[in-house]
């Protein structure tokens, strides 16, 4: 049972965390803090937060756990505003999509107190955002990656893991660098490729004709190109080195596939497609087995 | 009202065409013809076809309309088997994903009789296949592209268009070359990119670790990489020139995006992502408005 939990940003990610803890009866009080008074008022209205803090001082007084759920580029400024009021018994965690840059920002701002910062990343989301998008069941059966620092105490890491488990999440542990390399490959690169394809088509003189015939395969392939440009600009830059590594590997792969196509190498093309199909199907089966789709009871 | 319709291949595409015509009360008799006796027996059992023809001669006698719904690479051999029994009043059409190669095969085999061949491509599909996947509502509200030949009579083109309209489809007309250029961009290239990404990841030494963290964005982006390797090998080769053109444009786009990322060009990256997001959202809104998802009455 947690006492006071502070949510910095009460949108989809922070709001769902709060709702899940409340549904589990695992928190005494949730305090919200954020830049948008309107979003905060709405989070209060929806019962996501019990109190909207007027200041960092008010928010941080007696807090057990603080979740940063704002865009990663704001990590440094937010931590700087919290630091003067950070009590020795408070643990801070975050939900950012990149970790090495978040850790660097935390170290720069917090100094020795970085031991109280346990970085994390819940692997869950929806296309919609804001307090109204928050769901108590968002994290149920999903992974949350924790990337502990050498400075963290086992107890603080355990507190963050316990909070996510109360939300229904399965805890995985990686180093910040492992985390960023993995997500460059399976998340950040696909986003870049989808944005590039839609931008490529949209810039052609006959774009209207092309879009007219795009169908369900295109719809699914490009769904992630509907994501926030600002958020993905920040993620791309924050994880630039790992993303460049993956992008270069992909460009080499695509260039090799182009050579097979240009040479009319039927067996070569089929071998690539076949390997991909088998891997995709095996992945799909495994993920369905480990993460059953949320039932109706998972709504808020 | 059609008299005798012949379906060559009674899987998802041919079977759905037959079921739709039957549901519309628009056909007197559907005759099935295909390589797999088992699939044909199943199509008979499901009421997709009324009769399974034992020979091309039996199938073609008195046929009004013949739909080729087999892999495009089989177009030539199938037409060669039908030609000796092709009556002057019969119209043949097809449902292939590529058109220039289908037309070339038809011309080579049929000679002057190519005037009786009206090429087409219904833009609809499902991940499952075979007679059991066929749905009467598959084509409802979807586009069917017809790519008429200069040799076709207006009456024959009209017959094919009318049959698809009876299935609920909206008729669009392109030249075979326009068709192939359009689908290279919005369908064939995305398939190639998705196959390439999954193959790229699957070949990495730490593939298991990577797949473990792939989530919903990856799932949608790579769904089309679960498609048939044989079918996509054939489509890639059949539409090689147009696909190479699109692939080269995409490689140039991706190389430019790489340069923005390497240079840390925040505004440049955001401009690409923003253009893509706006285009993707506009497309999504337009497609939802023009193609409402099929209601429960669309099942078979």
What percent of residues of chain A adopt helix (DSSP H or I)? 40-55%
Largest sheet of chain A: 6 strands, parallel
Q: Which regions of chain A contain 5 or more consecutive residues with pLDDT less than 50?
A: 294-300
- Widest beta sheet: strand line-up of chain A: 3-2-1-4-5-6
Amino-to-carboxy terminus distance of chain A:
21 Å
| Largest interchain contact | A-B, 88 and 87 residues
Number of domains of chain A: 2
Characterization of the model:
- The structure is a homodimer of 300-residue chains.
- Chain A contains 12 helices and 9 strands.
- Chain A has a 6-stranded parallel sheet. A 3-stranded mixed sheet of chain A has the order 7-8-9, covered by helices on one side.
- In chain A, α7 crosses α11.
- The first copy, chain A, folds into 2 domains: 173 residues, 3-Layer(aba) Sandwich (Rossmann fold); 85 residues, Orthogonal Bundle (6-phosphogluconate dehydrogenase C-terminal fold).
- The first copy, chain A, is elongated and about 70 Å long.
- Chain A has 300 residues and is of the alpha/beta class.
- Chain A is 52% helix and 12% strand.
- Chains A and B meet through α7, α8, α9, α10 and α11 of A and α7, α8, α9, α10 and α11 of B.
Would you spell out the secondary-structure blueprint of this structure?
The structure is a homodimer of 300-residue chains.
Chain A: E1 2-8, H1 12-23, E2 27-33, H2 37-45, E3 51-52, H3 56-60, E4 65-68, H4 75-82, E5 91-94, H5 100-110, E6 117-118, E7 120-122, E8 143-146, H6 154-166, E9 170-173, H7 176-202, H8 207-213, H9 216-221, H10 229-238, H11 240-262, H12 266-290
Helix pairs in contact in A: 4-5, 7-11
